[in-house]
């Protein structure tokens, strides 16, 4: 693998060692001492070349990237096909530079001039309209990237340029993810003050969701500074490695200085964005986040239902609900505020209408469900069929009298007068009942009425 000094020497003599036909005759930007002007990154060195009137960022790797070669080729091909205005021309050239007798692969990108994000914000601190337009353009860019299935992977102030026409441009594509390389090993996880803790603290795969957290942090910072320029000085943004939120703030965001300041002094729009940050941080993995701009619409009620439609008063019913993009959810009838997705057992006695109300700054969504409740049934009367006998027996002739018992003390014997039974003239074993339509009615209403009076 070529070392840095060999690369510098080869670029300085580009007329000899540069092997890309499209860059034939290109000149290299030099320092006052005559050596090439360059930036050094973790994987590569970036030089500035000019070919005719076109300026290029020319990248040469100083570390072994054989395992990344296929990845960069696929990124280059995909971005070239999409032709989004946020990306510079990105061309992967095999064997683009001869370095110390070996041909090395290179990447050339359109050289972008403009102000880095922080410099642009500082320049326009007191121009609220320009900063709000920047926030709007940034939001549009986020939607475009999602629609075209691209994540930059390292959105932060150092990788966003505002050009001379106030257009947003992105640089540094080492962390870009496109569909063809999704779920590959991730080598760049982004600047900490812009990333969800789960992306920083664990080994991850490339994902098209990688930008969701940083997009929210950047958008929130721009609109908050536009609303209150004093935040720039209060949080020493110029000299920090972040905008308004530092990596330590994400440990306990609701207790952070920036949260305390914005939640007490900012507009409702800013407070709503803060609540989205809180919800993001309560989500274990950044891969499960949804784009923040999907919260900028009224909430969506996915489900609000009961496991029964009809009950008898006092029976148990289970309420189920699932709501998206709400910052506050409430169910009436004494239930109160609830989470986005949950269930609750209730025992309704009256008022069978339940209403769920979901709110955010962009609207209110409501849904009602009606439960049919019947009173506890009361048996007013009971019809019981009674048997009627074909043969009737007169039992009046049986004379039963009470026994006479002498309970005197020390008497050896009891004197019992046993009852005398008259023998039946009919064999009782042969009697068979015969049912007829005749019924007897037991009326319970008077019994219930009596019980109610006793309870009063």
TrEMBL record:
What the entry lists under PROSITE patterns is as follows: PROTEIN_KINASE_DOM
- List the SUPFAM superfamilies hit by this protein, alphabetically: Protein kinase-like (PK-like)
Molecular-function GO term, any one? ATP binding
User: Residues in domain Protein kinase?
Assistant: 32-301
Provenance organism: termite gut metagenome
What is the protein's given name?
Answer: Protein kinase domain-containing protein
């Amino acid at each position: 693998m070529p070392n840095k000094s060999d690369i510098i020497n080869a670029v300085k003599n580009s007329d000899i060692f540069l092997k890309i036909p499209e860059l034939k005759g290109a000149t290299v930007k030099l320092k006052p001492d005559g050596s090439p002007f360059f930036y050094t990154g973790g994987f590569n060195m970036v030089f500035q070349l000019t070919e005719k009137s076109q300026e290029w960022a020319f990248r040469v790797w100083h570390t072994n990237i054989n395992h990344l070669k296929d990845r960069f080729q696929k990124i280059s091909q995909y971005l070239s096909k999409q032709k989004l205005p946020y990306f510079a021309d990105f061309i992967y050239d095999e064997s683009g530079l001869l370095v110390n007798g070996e041909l090395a692969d290179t990447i050339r990108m359109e050289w972008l001039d403009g102000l880095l994000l922080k410099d642009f914000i500082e320049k326009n601190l007191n121009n609220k309209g320009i900063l709000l337009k920047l926030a709007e353009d940034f939001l549009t860019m986020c939607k475009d990237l999602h629609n075209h299935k691209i994540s930059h992977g390292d959105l932060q102030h150092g990788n966003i340029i505002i050009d001379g026409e106030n257009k947003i441009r992105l640089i540094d594509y080492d962390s870009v993810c496109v569909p063809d390389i999704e779920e590959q090993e991730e080598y760049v996880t982004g600047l900490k003050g812009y990333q969800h803790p789960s992306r920083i603290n664990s080994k991850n795969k490339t994902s098209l969701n990688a930008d969701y957290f940083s997009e929210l942090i950047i958008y929130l910072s721009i609109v908050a500074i536009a609303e209150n320029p004093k935040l720039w000085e209060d949080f020493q943004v110029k000299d920090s490695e972040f905008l308004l939120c530092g990596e330590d703030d994400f440990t306990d965001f609701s207790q952070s200085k920036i949260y305390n300041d914005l939640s007490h002094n900012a507009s409702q729009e800013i407070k709503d964005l803060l609540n989205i940050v809180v919800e993001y941080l309560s989500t274990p993995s950044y891969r499960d986040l949804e784009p923040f701009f999907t919260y900028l619409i009224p909430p969506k009620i996915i489900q609000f239902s009961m496991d029964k439609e009809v009950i008898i008063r006092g029976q148990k019913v289970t309420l189920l609900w699932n709501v998206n993009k709400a910052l506050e959810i409430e169910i009436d009838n004494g239930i109160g505020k609830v989470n986005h997705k949950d269930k609750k057992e209730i025992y309704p006695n009256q008022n069978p209408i339940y209403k769920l109300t979901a709110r955010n700054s962009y609207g209110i969504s409501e849904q009602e469900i009606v439960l049919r409740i019947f009173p506890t049934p009361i048996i007013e009367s009971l019809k019981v069929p009674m048997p009627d006998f074909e043969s009737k027996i007169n039992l009046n002739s049986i004379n039963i009298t009470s026994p006479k018992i002498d309970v005197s003390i020390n008497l050896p014997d009891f004197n019992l007068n046993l009852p005398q039974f008259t023998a039946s003239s009919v064999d009782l074993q042969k009697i068979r009942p015969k049912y007829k339509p005749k019924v007897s009615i037991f009326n319970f209403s008077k019994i219930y009425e009596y019980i109610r009076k006793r309870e009063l």
